[in-house]
């Protein structure tokens, strides 16, 4: 694993088979921002959208949330998310970290509700807000602790 850089942008992904939520944050500020939801059906379109985001934000690191069961065992979606992260690394050559994403959708829903987002807007942005919660979790991990 590469050591965590002290500065630079980080893109985080809430992987789903139908949608991928994306968030961005600057390491020095440690404040995640929900960015977008990629709803493309095919992998080529998904990775083209991700390539555009990488070109725009020029991240130094990517973070992918891994779904797990309550007992910590990796969920099938977590296995697919890990494979997605491996593809990100292979295509873009950027280091990829993984964090436990349990309860991020609940936290994202609560944050959107607290922010006054209407039900339709909450549904549309939930995956991006979940990606922001994933990134918030990554920022909370001390840089010297291996991921």
Molecular structure report:
A five-stranded mixed sheet has the order 3-2-1-4-5, sandwiched between helices. Helix 3 (104-114) crosses helix 4 (119-140). Strand 1 (9-14) and strand 2 form a beta hairpin. The protein contains four helices and five strands; from the N terminus they run βββαβαβαα. The mean pLDDT is 85. By secondary structure, it is of the alpha/beta class.
Give descriptors for this structure.
5 strands; 5-stranded mixed sheet; 147 residues; 4 helices; alpha/beta
Return the string of H and E elements.
Answer: EEEHEHEHH
Enumerate how many helices there are, as a single number. 4
Helix content: 40-55%
The CA-CA distance between the termini, in Å, is 8 Å
Provide a quick synopsis of the model:
The chain is α/β, with parallel strands linked by helices and 147 residues long.
How is the topology of this model organized?
Elements: E1 9-14, E2 20-26, E3 31-38, H1 43-57, E4 61-66, H2 76-92, E5 96-100, H3 104-114, H4 119-140
Parallel strand pairs: 1-4, 4-5
Antiparallel strand pairs: 1-2, 2-3
Helix pairs in contact: 3-4
């Amino acid at each position: 694993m590469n050591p965590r850089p002290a500065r630079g942008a980080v893109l985080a992904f809430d992987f789903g088979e139908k949608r991928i939520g994306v968030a961005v944050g600057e390491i020095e500020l440690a404040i995640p921002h929900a960015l977008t939801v990629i709803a493309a059906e095919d992998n080529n379109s998904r990775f083209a959208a991700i390539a555009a985001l990488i070109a725009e934000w020029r991240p130094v690191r990517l973070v992918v949330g891994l779904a797990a069961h309550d007992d910590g065992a990796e969920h099938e979606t977590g296995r697919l998310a890990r494979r997605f992260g491996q593809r990100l690394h292979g295509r873009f050559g950027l280091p990829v970290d993984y964090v436990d994403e349990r309860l991020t959708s609940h936290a994202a829903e609560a944050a959107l509700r607290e922010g006054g987002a209407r039900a339709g807007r909450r549904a549309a942005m939930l995956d991006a807000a979940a990606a922001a919660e994933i990134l918030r979790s990554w920022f909370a991990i001390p840089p010297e602790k291996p991921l």
